[in-house]
Amino acid sequence: MSAPSSTRNVAERFADLLRLPHSVVDHMADFIQQQFNRSANSFSLVEAGPHLPVQRALLLHDRHDLNVPFSDGEAIAASWPALNFRPTNGLGHNRIMRDPSVLEQVVEFLD
Q1: Where would you tag: which of 24, 53, 57, 60 has the fewest CB atoms within 10 A of its CB?
Q2: First and final C-alpha spacing in the chain
Q3: For 98-110, what is the mean pLDDT?
Q4: Mean pLDDT for the stretch of residues 4-11
Q5: d(CA 81, CA 84)
Q6: Quick check: 67 and 1 in contact, CB under 8 A?
Q7: What percent of the chain has pLDDT over 90?
């Protein structure tokens, strides 16, 4: 639910929230590269999602999410053909996890 599309975008939003210089984001990316021998963005759902060994996946994302832009959900859906993308309206970033109709869709998907 409400997943970010890019690890770089998450790091940049985090830096903005804490008013850190964007050079910190570059250092974080360098650290991930050194530790895992792969780019930080290779962990993003836009990059990794289509290659996950799953038959199907579900993503619900609210059009009015103030924490993770709706465009992130759209980007994930565009890059991952097997993904079942279901937009919601008016639930934001947190209420989506408690909404009865969303929970019903998740249970139905898992059945």
Answers
A1: 53
A2: 18
A3: 96
A4: 91
A5: 8
A6: no
A7: 91
DSSP bridge partners of 11: none
Average pLDDT of the residues of the chain? 94
Q: Which amino acid is at 40?
A: A
**Domain range for residue 38?**
7-110
Instruction: Judge residue 17's burial from the number of C-beta atoms within 10 Å of its C-beta, 0-12 exposed, 13-18 middle, 19 or more buried.
Output: exposed
Q: Residue 45 has what pLDDT? A: 93
Q: Does the residue 67 lie in any domain?
A: yes
- What residues form DSSP beta bridges with 83? 57
Alpha helices in the chain (DSSP H): 7-17, 23-36, 45-48, 70-79, 100-110
Is 2 a domain residue? no
Residues 6+ apart with CB under 8 A from 86: 58, 59, 60, 61, 105
Specify the number of domains making up the chain. 1
Residue tagged 């924490």 (tokens) = 67
